[in-house]
Amino acid sequence: MLGITVLTALLACASSCGVPSFPPSLSARVVGGETAQPHSWPWQISLQYLENNRWWHTCGGTLIASNFVLTAAHCISSNQIYRVALGKHNLEVEDEEGSLIVDVDTIYVHKNWSYDLAINDIALIKLAEHVELSDTIQVACLPEKDSLLPNDYPCYVTGWGRLWTNGPIADELQQGLQRVVDHDTCSSSDWWGTTVQKTMVCAGGDGVISACSGDSGGPLNCQLENGCWVVFGIVSFGSPWGCNTFKKPVVYTRVSAYIDWINE
Ligand SMILES: *[C@@H]1O[C@H](CO)[C@@H](O)[C@H](O)[C@H]1NC(C)=O
């Protein structure tokens, strides 16, 4: 019965979003991060900028439509030239099979983004072309408007950055379990206090088993009961005292608070 339910759910969203061709390996191992199954997060992109005739990875992001990428506002600097790499697993391998480099048409940074308050840390990148979806390039689902996930809900952060304090910088895409910390807990005074707004979501931060932020701008991937993966958060900021700091989980922009903005 359960098998049939799951299969139906998978079929229900397979054609649109949030179902990878190569399922992620969600092991019970939760210390730090681990290398992802290649192409199991096919909506993960690498945002790259040009400097000294070379392209450098700067942030993660999420493909949410065939020509739109969601990332963090703090990833965008107005005087840089960007491009987006899709379908990547190892950033050091050029011309990786199934990967694609696309130019940027326009970047929309939330107009009320505040660096000082870290609020509205969200930006949309319109790609110069519609990309062809494939086994290695797919779109993530958006969460339902204003939806929340319960405390402790298991989600996964993915990125090419350090997955724990002073950890190695990864060439291969990393993933780390991040359990949701609800707003009441995260905004209490011994956690993040008033720094954390309702437009944000905290995940991780028990100081023991939590992974750290992947790359800024990248997704907090949460699998809903229907089997589809949604980009529930965008990596925004973490603790200056280190990624595994007790009661200082990584703070994400809560995508469900920005559905109207995204659709606009
Ligand atoms: C930005 O803030 C202003 C003033 O609070 C508000 O009226 C406006 O709706 C906000 N814009 C967005 C896109 O949220």
Automatic annotation (TrEMBL):
Record-annotated Peptidase S1 domain positions: 30-264
GO molecular function, one term: serine-type endopeptidase activity
UniProt cross-references to SUPFAM superfamilies, sorted A to Z: Trypsin-like serine proteases
Signal peptide: 1-16
GO process terms (BP): intracellular calcium ion homeostasis; proteolysis
GO annotation, cellular component aspect: extracellular space
InterPro entries assigned to the protein according to its UniProt record, in alphabetical order: Peptidase_S1_Elastase_sf, Peptidase_S1_PA, Peptidase_S1_PA_chymotrypsin, Peptidase_S1A, Trypsin_dom, TRYPSIN_HIS, TRYPSIN_SER
UniProt keyword Disulfide bond, yes or no: yes
Domain of life: Eukaryota
UniProt entry keywords in alphabetical sequence: Disulfide bond, Hydrolase, Protease, Serine protease, Signal, Zymogen
SMART domains per UniProt: Tryp_SPc
Keyword Glycoprotein: no
PANTHER family recorded: CHYMOTRYPSIN-LIKE ELASTASE FAMILY MEMBER, ELASTASE 3 LIKE ISOFORM X1
Protein name: Chymotrypsin C
Organism: Chlorocebus sabaeus
